[in-house]
Amino acid sequence: MATNRPEGICHICGSTLPLTYEHVPPRSAFNDEPADIFNYMDWAARDEEGNMSGGIRQQRGWGAHTLCEDCNNRTGSWYVPTLTRMARAGLCVLDQMIPDDEANRRSGVIQGATVEFADIHPLRFLKQVVTMLLSANGPAFGTSNPKLATFVLDREQQGLPERYDFFLSFFRGPLGRMIGLSPFYDGRSWSNRTEIAFPPFSYLMTIDSPNAILPAGNISHFANYAYDEMASIQLNMVVGFGHTPIPGDFRSMADIEADRDSAEYE
Question: Structural domain tally of the chain?
């Protein structure tokens, strides 16, 4: 059957097939509006008001042709409903903590919030997070991390190697982030990070990091639940903002300006 889909390497199974458009995050998790996508150079060249030029308009919302039809359909039916439910509940909580207006984006500090997500499927949620991160990275990422790909392809599989850590945070924006695996130095040690940050959540993974890069929100233990196992999960989570292209940077604009002023006087 003829198809207009571009052919490429599926980011999960590694097969060369026509690729479907994968919404990252899922369209049902508020990713259903046109979006302007900028790269690091666009951000670095922003004006004094923080406005960026250039970029690419994606009419469908965030995403790309990354998955074959089979992988897209399977992960969509197996995992997406759980993530959608959590995202909708999370947005209600986030709207109460930090209303969606510029005044609150520019003030305050990183907060901690203890939230209970009732009657969810933790394993399904984590598997969708891994699915999204595989899509956000190039096809070589799945080849280099085959245990992540098999974790997604077998919906019943539990457990992941300890080298992988996953963090869930509340994320207000105003800028979103989709960052492929990159090395970062936090003043103590190097870590390899990849992140998707799109309100209401940031989904961040580290590989072979000697230290926890966030003080809260580690959801790596979600991998130990069974596929059909439900639980009410209480999480202490970071609540932050998106003003830079640095994965795991949740500083408010007030914090960024204070850090800049401090650096200028040193």
Answer: 1
Name 238's Cβ contacts closer than 8 Å, sequence gap at least 6: 110, 111, 112, 167, 169, 170, 214, 215, 216, 217, 250
Average pLDDT across each block of 10 residues of the chain; the chain has 266 residues. List them in order. Answer: 78 97 96 88 79 84 95 98 97 84 57 90 98 96 96 98 97 93 84 95 94 92 98 94 92 84 64
Angle formed by the axes of helices 69-78 and 122-136, nearest 10°:
150
Parent domain of 15: 7-41+55-265
Inside any domain, residue 48: no
pTM exceeds 0.85:
yes
Does the residue 46 lie in any domain? no
CA distance 233 to 6: 40
Is 50 domain-assigned?
A: no
> 144 and 180 in contact (C-beta within 8 Å)?
no
